[in-house]
Structure formats: structure tokens, C-alpha cells
Amino acid sequence: xxxxNCCRCSQRKKERSPEEYKRLIxxxxxxxxxxxxxxxxxxxxxxxxxxxxxxxAVNAAINAxxxxxxxxxxxxxxxxxxxxxxxQVIDELVTTxxxxxx
Length: 102
Known about the structure:
Layout: H1 18-43, H2 48-83, H3 88-100
Helix pairs in contact: 1-2, 2-3
């Protein structure tokens, strides 16, 4: 079987390449820093629109994280499960997309 770092659906785990892991953790670290910055702004009594602009930046960063993770999931786990005849992965993907689009 070709190596795709695919998740093992029965175990609900994903083996990520070191590069993917590093990219995702880097994004999460930046988001965490942005959240701490917003908390600091609230604690310092910053003007509401300034806080809202930073909160919008966090939302954009989370959306970018979700897009990257979703693309990886589709290219690896979903594609492999479909090749393996596990069509139930399509329903799982639809459910996940519905949750992301709320």
C-alpha cells in the first residue's frame, strides 16, 4: 500500500508527517498568541472596535487552520477510505462540513 500517512479510522487517529505536524502546531501557536493578546486588550480596557478587529483576525486564522486540516484529511484519509470501499467516510465528511459551515 502506498504511504499516505492516512488515519486509521477504527482507531480515530492520524499519523502526520513531521512537516504537517510542524505547520499545524505553528498555526495553533500563533492563534494562541492572538487569543492572549485579545485577553490583554480586554484587561487593559482597549476600545471595543480594536478588540473586534483582533477577534476577526483570530477567526480568519482558525478558518485557515481548518482549511489546511480539512484538505489534508480529504487527500489522505477520505481518499484512502473511498479506495478501500469504505463509503461511510462520505457521510462523515458531509457531517463535518455541515458543522464547519454553521
